[in-house]
Amino acid sequence: MLVSRVVLFPLPAQGHINPMFQLANILHSMGFAISVIHTRFNAPGGVDSRYPHFNFHLISDPVTEDNSSTPLSGNPVTAINLLNARCAGPFKLCLSRILSEESNGTVRCIITDAIWCFAQAVADELNIPRIVLRTTSVHSFLVYDALPLFHQTGYLTNMEARAEEAIPEFPPIKVKDIPTFGANDPDSTFETLSKIVGETKKCSGLIFNTFKELESPDLTKLGHQFCMPVFAIGPFHKRFSAAETSLLKQDRSSIDWLDKQAPQSVLYVSFGSLATMDKTTFLEVAWGLANSGQPFLWVVRPGSINGTASTASEVLPGEWAEEVSGRSCVVEWAPQQEVLAHSSVGGFWTHSGWNSTLESICEGVPMMCAPCFADQMINARWVSDVWRIAINLERVFARRDVEESIRLLMTTAEGAEMRRRVAALKETAAACLGSGGSSYEALEGLSKFIMELRNQP
Ligand code: UDP
User: Fold this and answer.
1) Ligand 1 atom index nearest CA of 243
2) 302 with 168, same domain?
C-alpha cells in the first residue's frame, strides 16, 4: 500500500518553524510521509541530514535570492505582506510539481502556517485540502478574529488615549493589548490580520499547539464560531524538541553554568527571536537584574539592541560586569527548553511569545512578562490575570520595577503561589499527552481526519 503523504509549509521565523517541524515529527511518528516546502531565507541549516526521513523542497523566492535581505526585520506586518507577495507564485509551482510528478497521488493534504494568506487559494486551485497550523494560543486567535468588531467599536482609533480601557467582550484584555505591531497605519495592519483570519476560516481543519484543559472555554467558543474541525494536540515540544530547528547555535555553556547554581535560584531572561529593545531600555534591564541580587542567565541575541551592531559585552559598562560577577551568565542563544527544565531555574522573564509561554508552563516555571508586539500582550495579560502564574511588566519599565518584580517572583510567598499554580498546569500538560489524555485523543482524531481527506488511489 502506498504511504500517505502530508506537505508542510512553515513561515520562515523561529517561533513558526519550531512548531511546524515538531508537528512534522509528530505526524511522521503516526505513519505519514513528510514533505516540507521552505524558503531559502531562514532555512534551518542542515535539515537534510537532521531529517533524512523528510523530503525537502526549496522554493526560489525573490525576497531572499539576494540573500542580504532580512524580510523579518522592521515592521512585522510589512514583512508578512512582502513574504506573501513574493512566495505565492513559487509555492504554487513547487506544490503542483510535487502533486503531479513526485508523490504519485499520495498527498492527503497540505498543512501551512496561517500567515500564508495565499495558500488557501492555491490549495483550492490545485484541488488539495489545506489544514492550517495556527502557532498562537486559541485565545489570541479569537482576539484576532474579533478585529472587525474592534474596528467597528472604535477601539482601533485613538488607541493611545483609550489604552487602559477594558474590552468587555474579552476580559481581562485591555485596548493596549490589541495587536498593532507598532504600526503607524493601524488600518493596513488590521487589513492584513483580518485577511489571515479570513483565509484560515476557509481551511479544512485547524491545528493549535495548546491543550484542551488550558483553553477549554476558548476552544468551545472557537467551535461555535468556526465550522471546521479543530485539533488541540499540544504541547508539541514535549513530544519532539525544537533544538534541531534552531536557527542560531544554542550555547551549551549555559547548561554547564546552571549545573553549578542552587535549585530554583536562577532567573532565565530571553525575549525570543524577533523582539528588540533600545539601548536605554536594555540598560534598565541590565541594572534591574544587577540590583535584584538574584543569579540570572540572560540571552542577548545578536542585533537585539536597537540602533547598535554591538554585542552585550560592548554595551554593558564595566561596573555592571563587576556588580554581577559570579552570579550571571550572558549568552547569545540558549537551549531554551533544556534551560527551562533545569532544576536551577526558578523564573523566566519572557517577551511572552506563545512557544516560550507554553515551554515555561510545561516545566512549571513562573514568569515575568515584557511583551512587545503581535499576540505577546494578549499572552502576557492571560498568564498574569487569568492563570495567575506571572507578573506583567507590560511595555515600559524602569530598573526599579524590574528589581522589585524579580524579588516578588523569586523570593516572596506571592511568587511561591505562582510557582504552585504553574506546577499544577505542568502536571495537567503532561497528563494530556498520555494515553487517553485530551491531546492524545485529539491527535488520534487528526490522524484519522487526514486519512479521510482524500481517498487512496
Ligand atoms: N529559543 C531558543 N533559544 C533562545 C531563545 C528562544 O531556542 O535562546 C526558542 C524557544 O524555545 C522558542 C522559540 O525560540 O521555541 C521562540 O518562539 P516564541 O514563540 O516564544 O517567540 P518568537 O521568537 O516567535 O517571538
Assistant:
1) 7
2) no
